[in-house]
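ASSEMBLY PREDICTION REQUEST
Request ID: AP-0331
Submitted by: J.K., bench scientist
Number of chains: two
Total residues: 938
Priority: normal
Notes: Please return the full assembly, not individual chains.
Input sequences:
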Amino acid sequence: MIRGMKAGLLAAASLAFAGCTATSGEVETASSKPAAEKADKPVKVDKDPYPSTYKGYPTRLTVVKGVTIFDGEGGRIDNGAIVMSSGKVDRIGGPDMELPTDADVIDGTGKFLTPGVIDIHSHLGDYPSPSVDAHSDGNEATSPTTPEVWSEHSVWPQDPGFSRALANGGVTSLQVLPGSANLMGGRSITLKNVPSRTVQGMKFPGAPYGLKMACGENPKRVYGAKGRMPSTRMGNFAVNRQTWAKAVAYKKKLDDGKAVDRDLAMETLAGVLSGEILVHNHCYRADEMALVIDMSKEFGYKVSTFHHAVESYKIADILAKEGICSAMWADWWGFKMEAYDSVKENVPLVYKAGACTIVHSDDANQIQRLNQEAAKARAAGHRMGIDVSDEQAWTWLSYNPAKALGIADKTGSLKPGKMADVVLWNGNPFSVYSRPEKVWIDGAMLYDAMDPKRRPVSDFELGQPGEGDVK
Amino acid sequence: MIRAPNLITHFRLSRAKSRDASAGASVSRLRSTQAGLGGALVAALALASAASAQDIAIVNAKLVIGDGSAPIDGGTVVVRGGKVVAAGAGVPVPGGIERVDAGGRWVTPGIVAAFSRVGLTEVDAVNGTNDRSASKSRFSAGLDIAPALNPMGSPVAVNRADGVTRAIVAPGASGSLFAGQGAVVDLADDNDMVTRPRALQFVAFGEDGSAKAGGSRAALFLLFREQLLAARSYARNPATLAEWGSDALIQRADADALVRVIDGTTPLFVRVDRATDILNVIKLKTEFPALKLVLVGATEGWLVANDIAAARVPVLVSPLTDLPSSFEQLGATQSNAGRLAAAGVSVSVGVFDDDDAHKMGYATQYAGNLVALTKLPGASGLSWDQAFAAISSAPARAVGMDASIGSLRPGRVGDVVIWDDDPLELGSRPAMLWIDGKRQSLVTRQDRLRDRYANPAEGVLPKAYDR
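STATUS: Completed
Returned structure:
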């Protein structure tokens, strides 16, 4: 929501671009390559030109025992134990499970252990703190379709928000998306929540790219205010469809082995059409989601997840049938017209319908307590007779977002062999009185509430009031 | 920039009518204001209030008075004529009044939203519904939000269903430095929200105020001082305003309002975050000693906690603000509230660095988070009892109304909530709620939508026929 509003403010300040007439991403990128490359043979495109350099930090053979475990896939073990070895979950089990004798052993009595929280919707890094214009890099609000931009090129790794999400929220992975000013805002990036000098040092190895799309009020407001298309919801769809039609033609050329000029926008959309890039679609209203589903079928792509889906409860049956996830807040509402029909039971109603259910933040503050948001949603469901166990509700925070991001084979639950992205909570994480005590990412302890030295401090906060403070 | 969304805004919609019969007969209600209104009128209102309120005794409660004292098991609270007459253990239940058995559940005073815009906006981004700010008005301090408040708006019902019974409501901004006069309101299901009009004056210092004043903190402090001095001159000789003519810094209505700020009649709520700005704001009391300052935000307050305590200035914090969102919030930490309280500052918990109109119910969650901090090494938080007081009696005290609202001590308004669980725990909701001794509906427009779509599939007829 805030990003959207910010988009509006930015748009107002960039009227200079109002004269542009392009409806798709034909900017310099499309024609900037020398004509010589337009040879007979298709150009070989490197699909990973900014590869992840993340390797994982030093680990120790670690055991947490006597702890209550939510495994992330709906399982629960009381008085359980976990063995983490070489950055992986080695095994989890009950009190009878055999444990190594040479491990660091942590007594988890009275505590809870979960997979790390995965926030599928964040702007950490591309709208960082401090919130100054110089750092506001989330919306390329100069054209309604910019699939050629990549959010990783905007991420500032020194955003102090990453450390808050780690220490207060137990967030171990997150998707950083472009904002919602544009119908097609650009590629998203999935990060491990580790401090790094470079964004490449945070990139989740092997995670697919996403394409951020946006329905509704924001694109039509931003571009309508500039006197250009789209200024209506029908304009939103027209621009989208025209762009998809072009992408289908572009992809056909590629599939036919024909030579094409490199077009970064079309490369992204062709990646969506071939299923390599996942669509993350900001969309509040149920009727618009239903139209987007038809549009996706018209052009042959699939929507992974509707984000901010405050009206998913109205079409939860359709979303279940289509296999589309909903990423939702617990109770945000009323800040704009398309958020007016929010209900506190949205999350549990989607869950009850058997549709993929995710709790997300879109916010540098709420990313610090997604467990609390899930708890509120769960309580609202309980009041209307939808009972969701703690361990089931945890799927909203780790396994489901991992599936929607295409990384569920690597993280999101505590299955043996997966990344040891793990949080030890000092009480039940669905209680307001609980906090992360320790957080491991790929088996490396990167936060410890008991040890001020295991508390990351970004360059920005070094030498400032409150450096290294509890936050 | 980060707070810009809060300044935009607002709406209209005929509210879903309550199905709760006990709240149906919406007599125009009565307020138990003390000092705020003139004498005869207050007396008449008080009589009417007594007539429409229920006399009620809630027994077998885990009773929270709201003044920072510990919960009382097996407690009783008695409300007569819209006011609390007794609360505690071993309180006798008078004969002939309605008796409600709380069954051992938590019973508390209603939450007091410490700093909000509830009633001023329905949908923030729909301008016609948004009465927060008046940046194009020729008036500033004289603006009075009372006629802008809409008790029929859905945010009133939604916040009430979350346990909020009273709110301190401030205007967002005017075209000049002072934003105008806020009010203390109730969230009852009737046609009149105002408990005390003109209960506060609001001004933003720091970056926002500097921008309003011309671009620097120097301009801000000078404009503040000159506007107060102009108001004082006007008070001594009303003709001066006419003499100044078009050069006047303020309008007559602004001067009237600022005179009440100077003499301490109206508390001055100051949004301020940077430690040095806080110190400079406190120093304003040297020149204007009667000012009743209340700090709003005070993100870096912990850095100057002893100075704030020594000046006996209460603070309203948005307690989970822990990011350096601006250069005036570099020291942000969730331990701010705990450290201020430990230094002896009166701390209230508000919900205003995010959505300050729709989600007042976050107050309980935020207060609960402060309790969680007490278990974290190196962090500072509040005890449960302190935390609850920070969302009930402390804001009442900050606005000078703790004798009438914010706790269940005798003489306070009969704003009582029976909760389904620990009120600071996630997802707890009121099971029953009274305002001024009147039972309130807890049904919202959102509940109606939920019920309509409990099964999303279409029936024989479209959903539009399902209600």
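REVIEWER COMMENTS: DSSP finds 14 helices and 16 strands in chain B.
SIGN-OFF: pending second reviewer
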